[in-house]
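hey so u asked for the seq, here:
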Amino acid sequence: MSESKDLKDRILQMRQDNNIDTSKVHNEDIKTIAEKEVGLPKTLNSENTKKDLNVKKSKEEEAFKLLASKFNQSVEVILELTKRVEKLETLVRLQSMQSENVKSNKTENLRAKKGKNKIFFLTMLLLGGVYLVYFFKIDLNILNEIISEFSSIIKK
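ran it, structure tokens below
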């Protein structure tokens, strides 16, 4: 929780440091560079031009260093976000594997219960048939004759 808060704070700090929308950055940089080039006085003195070039180079170097540091900060934030996304992906994978495992256990339990229920009902049906034959004294001679007829048909 505190890590995500720290990361949000860093992102907000970077936005406040830049103080500009990303869509406006490119256009404003081009405008300021063009204004600086137009505003430079053209002198014939070579020493002044060398100093101006040195000043211009040093400003460009400072701007480049500033841009590089901002880029490095952005890369750090992106790397942290990437690590967190990878952690979340692994957590999601683990949870899905666990839920699949639980589902497979439930289906196995249901199959086992169905098998037990089938055996129970067949046993009850058999006991019910034996009960009817025994207590109501059903004549099974007809059944014996039917079985003998089937066996003679099969033997032929």
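The longest helix spans residues 46-135. Helices lie at 2-18, 22-39, 46-135, 141-155.
lmk if thats what u needed
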